[in-house]
Recover the amino acids of this structure.
């Protein structure tokens, strides 16, 4: 119940990690990442509290809060002249919610200044999507509203190819566990190359997370993956810090970077 209390007390906050296109160094969006500003333990990352509630109903309420807060933040940035797409992560149990698309519609209606196409929903591929037909219905409903859809952690689950074939997700997100070792592990690099090829064959976009060095970025570009996020670009940051970061990107470390 501590999470429900935290929600009521507005102790949650979203941090944002930028996503960039290395072909022209353009900032294409940001991923919203939840943090808990715990009154005693300080700022907690999701790994410290979300696993405890994955099968709990409060996870649904937290998910709706994240979507609503991300839309509100897009409104605030837009008022400052910064038009950024934002992706949010939702748990698999949202798909079992009979009112999920209706709630999404309601949240979008509360933020008419932000086009629905600026919102992207990410679902963990490892989250055990049991009813694929139901999930595809929801993706279709999201698409009808203009919302994008991404399969997160792509390649880590045993159902990857089934999901790719049967779910009309717009984007495949290469898991950071593959990116982390791609410079030293030929197998991980081959998996990334395979995912990039599958994305091209199925006409999906592909983005890599966990890019921690310019060498990783260069290697990903050589495989045809140009959309990236990770510490080499920026760590997740509070919303108010992002416009300042955006104005100074690309920084000196990226001077002269070429995707070729």
């Amino acid at each position: 119940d501590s999470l429900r209390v935290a929600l009521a007390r507005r102790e949650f906050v979203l941090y944002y990690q930028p996503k960039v296109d290395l072909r022209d160094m353009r900032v294409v969006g940001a991923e919203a990442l939840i943090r808990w500003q715990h009154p005693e333990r300080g700022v907690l990352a999701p790994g410290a509290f979300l696993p405890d509630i994955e099968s709990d109903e409060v996870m649904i309420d937290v998910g709706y809060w994240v979507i609503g807060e991300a839309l509100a933040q897009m409104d605030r940035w837009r008022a400052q002249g910064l038009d950024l797409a934002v992706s949010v992560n939702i748990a698999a149990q949202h798909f079992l919610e009979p009112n999920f698309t209706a709630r999404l519609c309601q949240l979008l209606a509360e933020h008419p200044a932000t086009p629905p196409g600026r919102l992207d929903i990410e679902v963990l591929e490892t989250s055990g999507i049991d009813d694929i037909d139901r999930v595809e219905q929801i993706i279709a409903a999201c698409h009808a509203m203009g919302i994008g859809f991404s399969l997160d952690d792509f390649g880590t689950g045993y159902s990857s190819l089934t999901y790719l074939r049967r779910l009309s997700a717009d984007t495949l997100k290469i898991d950071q566990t593959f990116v982390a070792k791609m410079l030293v592990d030929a197998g991980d690099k081959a998996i990334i190359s395979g995912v990039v090829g599958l994305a091209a064959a199925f006409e999906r976009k592909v983005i890599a997370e966990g890019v921690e060095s310019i060498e990783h970025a260069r290697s990903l570009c050589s495989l045809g993956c140009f959309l990236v996020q990770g510490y080499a670009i920026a760590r997740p940051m509070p919303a108010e810090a992002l416009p300042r970061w955006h104005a100074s990107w690309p920084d000196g470390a990226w001077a002269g970077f070429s995707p070729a």
User: Anything to note?
Assistant: Strands lie at 12-21, 26-38, 42-44, 86-90, 119-124, 148-154, 171-174, 205-208, 227-228, 237-238.
